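Key result, reporting period 2: structure in, sequence out.
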């Protein structure tokens, strides 16, 4: 299939683009490069062994998105483009709603006009809100605690409503748990701008000497070691989930399918710091700090629906996640070269 990958230069988008190409698809990157660097592209081309078509387009701009779909002969869209920093979303809610909802609306509108029926969407376990029991199942109610989370809840609803109006749509809502790790080559990986919000890139930057220490946000949670537990999954397993979802959409009669993508196994912050210390060969310094507002004690998936319906399972271990993150971070201490 010829596939438009919005946000294809980003962390999850870049790994997925490579796997789509490896699966025989023609993946076309569409990215505004506001949170990604152009220098990822030659690295992807080297790994793919072929040129990759790239369009620098902000998908919230309707005429631009419409033009892509009009000219592109696409058969499917994989939609990653979006803003994702929880704290920033609290400070700039309007930017988050405009950007995240805007890109989904203009893609769906352009798909309708140009008869593209299939879309895989980057949703998040954040849609389970703050009081969900674990493990989390797809049929739980959705809610959110911050504007970023609400954009995911709302985008899911937009897809469901669009599919009621047009039952020929085939939509996969993929609820990611905590993606980490990097391509085994060490040449592509996660390169957040500014101070990382997420645990893994923060640990990696401390390990490589860019920052002093990891602050562990709370050790008084009702978990075995008192630190928060999450369902970390390797970005390569996550990318494979997109390839499997696309294949499934080609055969299903269901308009909207929702799948958790996680391992089903929780790992605590302390366990992650220890695992990373083993992977990088030295102790990663840390200090316990107060809880981060809005954090929950535990989040992990029931991934059984994805396993039974997609034949997909997250295979890679926490040690592999840390080893691959370390290879990327140690080979690229400052991330991708500046544009
Ligand atoms: N943590 C620290 N120190 C840090 C950063 C994080 O101790 O510097 C802890 C958090 O308290 C939490 C765990 O590490 O217990 C993981 O935190 P992340 O920020 O990496 O991930 P979250 O689970 O909080 O957030 C992720 C995504 C969000 C999404 C959320 C729920 O980043 O986009 O999962 O799906 F909303």
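The corresponding designed sequence is given below.
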């Amino acid at each position: 299939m010829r596939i438009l990958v919005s946000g294809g230069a980003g962390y999850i988008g870049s790994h997925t683009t490579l796997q789509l190409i490896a699966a025989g698809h023609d993946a076309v990157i569409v990215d505004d490069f506001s949170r990604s660097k152009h220098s990822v592209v030659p690295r992807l081309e080297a790994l793919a062994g072929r040129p990759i078509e790239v369009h620098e387009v902000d998908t919230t701009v309707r005429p631009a998105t419409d033009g892509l779909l009009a000219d592109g002969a696409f058969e499917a869209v994989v939609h990653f483009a979006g803003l994702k920093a929880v704290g920033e979303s609290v400070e700039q809610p309007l930017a988050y709603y405009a950007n995240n909802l805007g890109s989904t609306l203009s893609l769906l509108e352009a798909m309708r006009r140009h008869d593209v029926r299939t879309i895989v969407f980057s949703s998040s376990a954040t849609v389970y809100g703050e009081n969900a029991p674990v493990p989390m199942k797809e049929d739980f109610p959705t809610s959110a605690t911050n504007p970023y989370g609400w954009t995911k809840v709302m985008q899911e609803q937009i897809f469901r409503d669009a599919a009621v109006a047009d039952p020929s749509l085939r939509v996969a809502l993929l609820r990611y748990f905590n993606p980490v790790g990097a391509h085994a080559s060490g040449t592509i990986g996660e390169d957040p701008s500014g101070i990382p919000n997420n645990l893994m890139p923060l640990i990696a930057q401390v390990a490589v000497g860019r920052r002093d220490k990891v602050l562990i946000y709370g050790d008084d949670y009702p978990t075995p070691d008192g630190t928060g537990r999450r369902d970390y999954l390797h970005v390569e397993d996550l990318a494979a989930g997109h390839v499997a979802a696309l294949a499934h959409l080609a055969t299903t009669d269901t308009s909207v399918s929702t799948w958790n993508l996680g391992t089903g196994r929780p790992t605590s912050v302390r366990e992650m710091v220890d695992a990373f210390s083993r992977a990088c060969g030295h102790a990663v310094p840390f200090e316990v700090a107060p809880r981060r507002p809005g954090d929950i004690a535990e989040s992990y998936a029931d991934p059984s629906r994805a396993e039974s319906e997609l034949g997909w399972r997250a295979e890679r271990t926490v040690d592999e996640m840390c080893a691959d993150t370390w290879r990327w971070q140690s080979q690229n201490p400052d991330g991708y070269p500046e544009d």
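The mean pLDDT is 98. Residues 84, 86, 124-126, 149, 178, 197-199, 202, 214-217, 228, 230, 269, 292, 295, 299 surround UFG (CB under 6 Å). This case is discussed further under Risks and Mitigation.
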